[in-house]
Amino acid sequence: MLLDNWTTEQIRRKFADVFGHAPEIITFAPGRIEFLGNHTDYNGGPVLGAAINRGVWVAFARRADSRWRMASDYRQGVLHTVDVAAYEFVKQCGEAAWANYPLGVLSVLPAYGYSVPDGFNFLATSNLPVGSGLSSSAAIELASALAFIAVTGRHCPPDILAQIGRSAENDFVKVPCGILDQGVSAFGRSNHLVHIDCRHNQFEHVRLPTDVNFWIFNTHTKHALVDGLYAGRHSECRQAATLLGVATLADATFGQLEAVRSLMPEPVVKRALHVLGEIARVREAIASLAEGAVPRVGKLLTASHRSSQKLFENSSPELNMLVDSLVVIPGVYGARLTGGGFGGAVLALTGQDFQAVEARAVGVHYSHRFGAEPQILQLRSGEGARVLNKATHLR
Hints:
It is a single chain. The protein is of the alpha+beta class. It has two domains: 8-207 and 382-390, Ribosomal Protein S5, domain 2 (2-Layer Sandwich); 213-379, GHMP kinase, C-terminal domain (Alpha-Beta Plaits, 2-Layer Sandwich), CATH 3.30.70. It has eleven helices and twelve strands. It has helices at residues 8-19, 100-108, 136-150, 158-173, 180-187, 226-244, 254-260, 266-290, 294-312, 317-326, 356-370, and strands at residues 25-36, 46-62, 67-75, 78-85, 120-126, 192-197, 202-207, 213-222, 332-338, 343-350, 375-379, 386-390. The strands form two sheets. Strands 1, 2, 3, 4, 5, 6, 7 and 12 form an eight-stranded mixed β-sheet that branches. It has a four-stranded antiparallel β-sheet with strand order 9-10-8-11. α6 crosses α8 and α8 (266-290) packs antiparallel against α9. The longest helix is centred in the C-terminal third of the chain and has 25 residues, at 266-290. The model has no long low-confidence stretch (mean pLDDT 92).
């Protein structure tokens, strides 16, 4: 059930309804907004993100036998269960595919020095709209990892937690993501952005003005070939780096790209131009926020979307229409797609003059063209992944 929020007591009751006993551990990991730096993370560049006040809760308790019983109810309130033998790392399909994220975490824990529980009951629930570009996948990875680790009495620092989540997604789920989603979810802080130097896996906090708002317009659209398209963009970026003679695109310059441009396929040139432009925009946004120049930051967000639209080609008619509608409204500093693209959601950075009335008007305008209104969320920055509740006496 998609609630605005869940309390630990509600989670505890839900777990007891499903499994017949109370959980030992309840954890939470937030979703994230990709504020700026689209597809820069796996190219070694900088990125800015914000953890948000929505995410995934995991309730967990060990079992006496060697079964992993996992349930989730965050897809339209329908309970989906997976029951496998412990250490049976078999990828799930269809409605059970959500379980690949906690299974992936379990598969990589030993590489980071953590033990894998022999048997357990596990419940995941969320108030993140699935497919909205808010990274429910990273949130369930981190909430799962915290539960698996905390039940043993051990601590996991946020940088290692982020690496565990990324490894699960890269090595088990087989999505070649960078560290953005997991890093922002792990290092989130209220009233701050998370700045990640993805070349060196360094994390810093960048203060946000308190009088700005995030608005998400979730189109509920997703390209049918999104996984292949994402992997294709990843491959094109690697090809660009190889042709430029650098380890990652973050090591290249516009001058180097111009010097070999005639030798590169045009789509590869466009992908490289987008990534190099995004890197420059992230750096300029950090400097602008330090000066309090929010309108300048908004223009960088909109420029980012135009680059995604024309160079990286990971936008869509729905996303473009929303951005076009938003940026002409007073009180909107800028707007861009957020997340991997190919559908999903648009982020708008606004001042206090832009409120629910204006947001609904955008939704109605969108519905006249596409036949359905987008889901509209006003979000706040929030804290990172954490343990919420631990039984006084663990078995």
